[in-house]
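Hey, resending since the last one bounced:
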Amino acid sequence: MASTFGGLNIMTLGMSAQQLSQNTTGHNVANSKTDGYSRQTVNLITTTPQQIYTANGMSVAGTGVTTASITRARDFLVDTQYWQKNATKNYWSTQGEVLAKVENVFNDTKNTGIQNAIELFHTALGTLASNAGEPSARTSAREAASALVETMKTSGNNLVSQANDASSRIDTQITQVNSLSKQIAALNKQIVSQEATGATANDLRDQRDKLVDELSAFTEVNVSEEKNGSYTVMIAGGISLVQGDHATELTVEHGRNTPYGYDTTKVTALNGTVNVSFKNGSIASLTNLRDTTINGYLADLDAMAQSLLQDFNAQHKQGKTKDLNAADNFFGESFGTASTVNDYATGGANDPTVQASPASWLSILKVNEDFYGTDGYNLIAAAGSSAAGAADGTTATALKNWLVDDPATASASLGKNSLSSYYGSIVSSAGVQTQQAKNMTINQTVIFDSVATTRQSVSGVSMDEELSNMIKFQQAYAACGKMLATMDSMLDSLINIR
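The structure tokens again:
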């Protein structure tokens, strides 16, 4: 026989279930703009039915409703795609950001860059060829050369500054990775403890996923969930960044690049015993930019400096000074007063045309200091080797042409390129790389946004849906209340009759 008060209990359970559903709806609405929040749902099931006897034998009667669980709307596969695409997007956005700054180093639109300096030097040498006997023409050639040297060195310093900035950002981001790893490990511990009772730690899981979102911007992560609910987070190289309540701390070892002198970083784990490499994400992007792209452009500037110190000097030494003596190097160390007419032609220990390669050609590039002594500009070779007078401009013409005309025979540093065309290829390469990075950023952002939209459709809070649920649970609660009042009235009538 069914309990006399069974109906009251059913309605009481019903009102409690609808109230909990309504409260969860309110929780969803309140967190609709909370970053990383996942929509929660109360899962209701019927309570254990009661066996009763009927005219046709044994039967069962419902006893009400109860809450089975409160779950969050989440798709782990979509989360995994989100983390992968976030790492790729941040890799290319970092590339685009830094390459835009690198491109500005080679920007000649305001007539202040290397190309402009080459053109001014070319013009000054042309003037010298036509006015070899004029001090002003020689002074202009010297100063134009000095301006080219300073512009190249300034560009090199700017690239070194970009490389140093990349190293500084890597250092900062490793600190952030360590902080995120520790927070994820701490949440793992809380989640395991809370879910040991059978509950689902929805809000803690949301916080943990949000931290993984942030971590995936720095490097690509491989996340797996263990049976106890904790996350294991792996990065490239099979390094376990987070496992259970343990976080592996990464350390940064600082060094100095040879030959260009910018700061370097080596990331290690497990007390420096394991080198850490990164795949995708901003850290991998910064590392590749510094060690490959920026270092490559510094090597290009070094090749230009080498060509000036060797190829240009070799051409200059074939000519004669204003006094029709053998010419010294135009660029590099000064050799002082020649003891014989062949000293400058054969070179000495510090002669860049014959010396072993220094750590950096750009670091030793300068205009011959002797050109700045009293009447030092007269040491500039304008005349050819067989010139009969100081007005001859054969060598100046050859030097002028060397700057812009591609040679028939390849040089050791520039190949079959003139200084001007070689620099033009650097500018072109920088422009192409920057544009590619911009295009890839746009492309990867579109892909990431698509995954983010899918994720939002799964986990996001829809205000229309929640308002609909609010009305549904409100009406169900009210209906339970009316049923409870009706049953109470029936029992009251029964008691009064008895």
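DSSP finds eleven helices and eleven strands in the chain.

Sorry for the duplicate.
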